[in-house]
């Protein structure tokens, strides 16, 4: 049973999500959905899509995007299909395990070199290295097996065309692991730290990278989410939550 639909991006999108206590899309999904601006006809894949928040938000903001959502949980797949229909967005929904073998992924419908853009919010934790959520769905969404990040990025790379772009969000302390997973596969890597407050360390990193590029890495200005009031977004963060583009660097 889900709660009523949540208004997302200032009401541009309305999403049914799992009940409170389960994994629900929030600021991470908003920031990832705003990372790229697909052109009409671009093929976009949201890998590990959950209820479809990231891919649907990006498609809602950029009409003409050819959207595919990839998820393994049947309950979340049902919500993703319902959310696409509710918002009038055409989306192919593929049931597939991102960590499965290449043959299994292809059998599920994930064809190599078939997308221009891939967005992904991988699970953040390895079991045994944090306290898992008591909610099974949330624990599954947050946990990876050992070596899972590299396998996850490998799948994203396989389905992305050469020269296509990958966007992901992760914990700030996972940046070395992310760069290791991207090494030899991507260039033109752009990293944007996300800080809860200006004086605080980063809590997230947003990463954009181009498959097969040899361009140099760049570190972008940080996004600060809150000012003196922790319950209020900064103007930049508030604008992004309403569907505005990234402020100029």
Order of helices and strands: EEHEHEHEHEHHEHEEEEH
Strand content: 25-35%
Mass-distribution shape? globular
Alpha-beta content class: alpha/beta
- CATH architecture call: 3-Layer(aba) Sandwich
Quickly name the level 1 CATH class. Alpha Beta
Can you tell me the CATH superfamily?
Answer: Vaccinia Virus protein VP39
Q: Which stretches are poorly predicted, pLDDT < 50 over at least 5 residues?
A: 127-142
Helical residue percent?
A: 25-40%
The CATH topology corresponds to: Rossmann fold
Sheet having the most strands: 9 strands, mixed
Task: Please give the alpha-carbon distance between the first and last residues.
Answer: 42 Å
Q: How many separate domains? A: 1
The DSSP helix count reads 8
- Per DSSP E runs of 2 or more residues, the count of β-strands stands at 11
Average of per-residue pLDDT values: 89
Radius of gyration: 17 Å
Q: Helices and strands in order, then pairings?
A:
Blueprint: E1 6-8, E2 13-15, H1 27-33, E3 43-47, H2 53-61, E4 66-71, H3 74-86, E5 91-95, H4 102-108, E6 115-120, H5 136-142, H6 148-159, E7 160-171, H7 175-182, E8 186-195, E9 202-211, E10 218-219, E11 223-224, H8 235-241
Parallel strand pairs: 3-4, 3-6, 4-5, 6-7, 8-10, 8-11
Antiparallel strand pairs: 1-2, 7-9, 8-9
Helix pairs in contact: 1-2, 6-7
Please give a structural write-up.
It is a single chain. The protein is of the alpha/beta class and 249 residues long. The protein has a single domain, classed as Rossmann fold (3-Layer(aba) Sandwich), CATH 3.40.50. The protein has 8 helices and 11 strands. Strands 3, 4, 5, 6, 7, 8, 9, 10 and 11 form a 9-stranded mixed sheet that branches. α1 packs across α2 and α6 crosses α7. The longest helix has 13 residues. The protein is globular. About 6% of the residues have low confidence.
């Amino acid at each position: 049973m889900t709660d009523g639909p949540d208004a997302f991006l200032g009401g541009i999108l309305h999403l049914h999500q799992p009940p409170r206590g389960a994994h629900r899309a929030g600021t991470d999904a908003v920031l990832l959905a705003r990372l790229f601006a697909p052109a009409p006809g671009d093929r976009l894949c949201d890998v590990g899509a959950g209820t479809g928040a990231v891919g649907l938000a990006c498609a809602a903001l950029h009409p003409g995007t050819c959207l595919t959502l990839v998820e393994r949980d049947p309950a979340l797949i049902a919500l993703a299909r319902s959310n696409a229909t509710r918002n009038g967005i055409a989306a192919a929904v593929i049931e597939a395990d991102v960590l499965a073998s290449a043959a299994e992924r292809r059998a599920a419908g994930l064809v190599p070199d078939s997308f221009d853009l891939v967005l992904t919010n991988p699970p953040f934790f390895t079991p045994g290295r944090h306290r898992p959520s008591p909610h099974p769905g949330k624990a599954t969404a947050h946990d990876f097996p050992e070596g899972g990040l590299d396998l996850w990025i490998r799948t994203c790379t396989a389905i992305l065309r050469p020269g296509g772009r990958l966007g992901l969000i992760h914990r700030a302390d996972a940046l070395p692991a992310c760069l290791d997973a991207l090494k030899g596969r991507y260039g033109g890597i752009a990293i944007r730290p996300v800080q809860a407050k200006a004086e605080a360390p980063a809590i997230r990193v947003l990463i954009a990278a181009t498959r097969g590029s040899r361009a140099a890495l760049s570190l972008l200005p940080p996004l600060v989410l809150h000012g003196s009031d922790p319950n209020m977004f900064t103007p930049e963060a508030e604008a992004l939550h309403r569907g505005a583009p990234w402020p100029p660097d």
